[in-house]
Amino acid sequence: MKLSVGLRVANSLSLTPQLQQAIRLLQLSSLELEQEIQIQLDSNPLLEKIEEQTDIENLAILKDQDVKDLTNELNADHLPDDLPVDTDWDDVYTHQPTSLGTSEFEEREDNRQGHLSLKEHMLEQINLLHFSIVDNLIAHCIVDSLDHKGFLDCEISEITQSVQHLLQSMDYDEVIEDDEVLVVLKHIQRLDPVGIGARNLAECLMVQLESLPSFTVNRKEATLLLQHYELLISNELPKLIKQTGLNTEQLKGAVELLKTLKAHPGLKFEDRDSDYQIPDVVVSKKNEHWFVQLNPDIMPKLRVNSFYASMIKRADQSDDNQYLRNQMLEAKNFIKSVDERHKTLLKVATCIVKHQRAFFEIGPEGMKPLVLRDIAEEVELHESTVSRVTTNKFLLTPRGLYELKYFFSSHVGTTSGGEASSTAIRAKIKKLVAEENARKPLSDNVIANLLKDEGIDVARRTVAKYRESLHIPSSSERKVLI
């Protein structure tokens, strides 16, 4: 083997720190970007927000004016009776009202109430009952076994064993039976909310029916329906009428009464924190034209601190001067990366709005098939860049708030040779089901034929898949006979 030395020219892509930072900022959400900016502001003294610096400058200008005015007064030939001072006597000493006087500010009691959980609400009521030590222990075990819907999430025998084990650890010799647990459970089921601690939906509704006044209309018929709960759930109304002996009007009245009851009494105690999303881009329509702009509330206004920048000396190679140079370079690169992020986001959002104009005009039925490659080719970016831009970014439209990923969907062929978006097909299926006759609901095959009449060639299996993704039951489950 002969060794030789030669030159070769080749192209290679290297990710500089600035490019890595730009890519990382591109995929951050608005909240994550705000946190990243705050980190940079805390660590880099040459980076600052314009609003904060403007307030400081205004304060400095006011101070300079006050100092000049005071100096002019002191240099005058005669001194005025009242010289300007920093504070007044009233600022230091304020008159305290007597017992007959009224306070300057109204004192108000803090009436805010914390959110009680289901278990805390139940234990508050149990503590007011005159239970024995054993019954109180059983009640606590029952409450600990409730799920978030308010149902008992274990068997009676398991609660019995738990109570027995606790009594043994407390040196009690009593033996607990399942009947004792059932008696305490009956008391708990009639506390607020009524039906709590039920073992199934039928028992929960039955307890609520029993708590209603005896003169309640259709109470007896509704109780009879719950005795045939399986037929009611499976919607087998002819068998239900035959076995209960009720006519159609009585059955309809009983079902209406059951609908007024609470199927999951524990859900109202669930602490549901609202998940608010701040839009990154805002779309509005003016004079039949759609305009796209970045949300000004989340656009950071950054700049390089002029005071520290003026301290940098060209020929100085000291550590302090070098530190300021590096920090200024990092600040400029960060500002540039944030600016490029906003420009790329606006460019991609504008292209999406251009393609999905029909969606903003008529709704989801006007959604056009769109993939990342289409946007990437039009804005001359890579697909991975478009994917980063559209992740966790939200678009505020007159029709609501949507994630940018929502506007990308697969397509289905049409009879005319074109393409239809899967989102538009789902919207059409949802509309057809909403307008159907409840006594004769549309089957998946009928929906597929109706879509073909509109030029959308879709199979029955595809209709079933889209229907299930919309959480729409099958035609047999949607059928209503009364």
What are the key terms here?
3 domains; about 475 residues; Arc Repressor Mutant, subunit A; two-stranded antiparallel ribbon; extended; 22 helices; alpha+beta; four-stranded mixed β-sheet
Quick overview of this protein structure:
This protein is α+β, with helices and mostly antiparallel strands. Helices cover 51% and strands 7% of the residues. About 7% of the residues have low confidence.
Main β-sheet, in a few words? 4 strands, mixed
CA-based shape? extended
Strand order of the largest sheet: 3-2-5-6
- Work out the radius of gyration: 36 Å
Write the element-wise H/E pattern from the N-terminal end onward: HHEHHHHHHHHHHHEEEHHHHHEEEEHHHH
Structural class: alpha+beta
Q: Cα distance, first to last residue?
A: 93 Å
Tally of DSSP helical segments: 22
Q: How large is the share of residues in beta strands?
A: 5-15%
Query: What is the total number of structural domains?
Result: 3
The beta-strand count equals 8
On the 0-100 scale, what is the average pLDDT?
Answer: 82
Helicity range: 40-55%
Low-confidence region ranges: 52-56, 83-112
